[in-house]
Write a structure and sequence with these properties.
alpha+beta, Butyryl-Coa Dehydrogenase, subunit A, domain 1, Butyryl-CoA Dehydrogenase, subunit A, domain 2, Butyryl-CoA Dehydrogenase, subunit A, domain 3, 3 domains, four-stranded antiparallel beta sheet, 14% strand, globular
Length: 388
């Protein structure tokens, strides 16, 4: 395994660093202080688009847009972006979470229709993946949103919650079941375009952290969509249509989430180090001990994220490493923010310091895309040879 950073990746990381310092961190602090997501017309999004963000990695006419070393490259960028502000990173325009599912399972027509507008977007555009429901979070197999065929349409009914960017998305990839009694095997993903009658009741949730992006609940009430809006089409093999492949989207993303958490922990470390140096606290052994602890744990977690991404690039299984990267990254970033709060003491307690924001933001990293407990359940089952 190669531990070095490719020069092209290094260059891209440096560009994110400049942009993060200049625009991401200030936008994240602004949203946190206002307690609401960056509005759609915030100048940050237009500037982000102008610097080349918000694009799809899909290349029309190319069967596989995935380039060599793509996962490791993405990991380094994720860590650096989240160092500056993870909430803003997710708020960024682009096809986001559902892009991987569309690339892996979408028909050519679906890629053209839904990813096409993200090739060279005329304005900031968003898309989202809607799995979670009020009564189905960790147990994603328990979703109750139904899809029933009625003549030339699918009719969707249900409720979703905590969906990133739902009210501003051009389209939503909605997970629904064809038959609740059949559990996970009957799940499918559907494109629902914004403005479709029956899609509505958007309500932005109140969150403790990661406030720059909206997490939104909504309902689908007799929402009719064309038959061709079934991801992958009706002719796709059943083995590729259901729950398992939706979960693969999350598996690929887990080390990236772990890396983002490491980036946030690194921000807490730098903030603490800066404060300790400035105030002279660094002369104290027990302060240096905390700094060392933060650094050691963050570096270890980064190595596991790197390993998990390297396995993706090698097209080798990474279930264990992906869950370990997600669980450990989120855990050590929370520890780093907690230790930082202790070092800054009263200064952190005023509620208007980056370290306090990081403390709230890192907690959310243990929840998104599969909680820490769920990652540990997955690893334990893998260890004893049980199916996932
Ligand atoms: C900021 C944010 C953004 C999000 N974005 C999206 C999004 O874009 N799209 C989307 O679909 N979802 C999204 N979610 C939802 C997220 O995926 C769920 O919150 C997560 O899966 C946990 O589900 P839950 O909140 O319902 O908790 P629950 O599943 O109710 O779990 C509650 C607690 O019980 C624990 N637990 C549950 N089952 C077990 C078990 N078997 N063993 C041990 N412990 C267990 C959990 O770890 C947790 O601590 C987002 C959530 C947040 C906070």
């Amino acid at each position: 395994m190669d531990f070095s950073i490719h020069p092209e990746t290094q260059e891209a990381v440096e560009a994110v660093r400049d942009w993060g310092h200049e625009a991401m961190r200030p936008a994240g602090l602004e949203a946190d202080r206002l307690g609401s997501p960056l509005p759609v017309d915030h100048p940050y999004f237009q500037r982000s688009l102008e610097r080349g963000d918000g694009r799809t990695s899909w290349c029309p006419g190319e069967s596989s847009p995935v380039r060599r070393g793509a996962a490791v490259h993405a990991m380094w960028l994720a860590e650096e972006g989240a160092y500056w502000d993870r909430g803003v990173m997710v708020a960024n325009p682009g096809p986001g979470l559902p892009e991987a599912s569309v690339l892996a399972r979408g028909t050519e027509e679906q890629k053209e229709k839904y990813l096409g507008p993200f090739v060279d977007p005329d304005r900031p555009r968003w898309a989202c993946f809607a799995m979670t429901e009020p009564s189905a979070g960790s147990d994603a197999a328990a979703i109750q949103t139904t899809a029933q065929k009625d003549g030339d349409a699918w009719v969707l009914n249900g409720a979703k919650c905590f969906i990133g960017g739902a009210s501003r998305s051009d389209w939503l990839l909605v997970q629904a079941t064809l038959d609740i009694r059949q559990g996970r095997n009957a799940q499918r993903s559907f494109f629902v375009e914004q403005g479709t009658p029956g899609l509505g009741n958007f309500k932005i949730e109140k969150k403790m952290g990661l406030k720059a992006y909206e997490s939104t609940s909504f309902t689908l009430q007799s929402c009719r969509i064309p038959l061709e809006n079934l991801l992958g089409g009706e002719s796709q093999p059943k083995s590729q249509a259901g729950f398992k492949t939706a979960m693969q989207t999350f598996n690929a993303g887990r080390p990236i989430i772990g890396a983002m958490a490491v980036g946030m922990g690194r921000a807490a470390l730098d903030e603490s180090l800066h404060f300790a140096k400035e105030t002279g606290l660094i002369k104290r052994e027990r302060i240096r001990d905390r700094i060392e602890c933060m650094s050691r744990k963050l570096r270890s977690a980064r190595l596991i994220c790197l390993r998990a991404c390297w396995l993706v690039d090698q097209k080798r299984p990474n279930v264990m490493e992906a869950s370990m990267a997600k669980a450990l990254g989120a855990q050590v970033s929370q520890q780093a923010a907690g230790l930082g709060l202790e070092i800054l003491g009263q200064v952190a307690g005023t509620g208007d310091h980056l370290i306090e924001k990081l403390y709230r933001d890192t907690k959310a990293m243990d929840i998104v895309e599969g909680t820490g407990q769920i990652q540990r359940v997955i690893m334990a089952r893998q260890l004893v040879g049980l199916p996932r």
